[in-house]
Automatic annotation (TrEMBL):
GO MF term list: 4-amino-4-deoxychorismate lyase activity
Protein's name in the database: Aminodeoxychorismate lyase
Family matches, as Pfam families: Aminotran_4
Protein EC: 4.1.3.38
Top-level taxon: Bacteria
UniProt entry tagged with the keyword Membrane: no
Keyword Lyase (UniProt): yes
InterPro entries per UniProt: Aminotrans_IV, Aminotransferase-like, BCAT-like_C
Keywords: Lyase
Spans through the membrane: none
Amino acid sequence: MCTRHVSTVRGVNGVMRQFIIAALARSPYRVVEVNARPAEISLADEVLICNALMPVVPVQRYGEQQWSARELYQFLAPLCESSD
């Protein structure tokens, strides 16, 4: 179940990160910035990474944790591709 709540781990305030946060601000999703530890990240429904070279990529596995949800990725991918 998606609660439409997006947490972002503080990181480099790059162009793609800014673009994604702005796009989410105009969407049904709510962005909350957090300082997450690995144990907290493992509780996420979906994990994505982004940068200017590969706009948005779903994380499939981190340690023993695996993710298969793609709702947020499917929402963001077309937006990120059109931002080139």
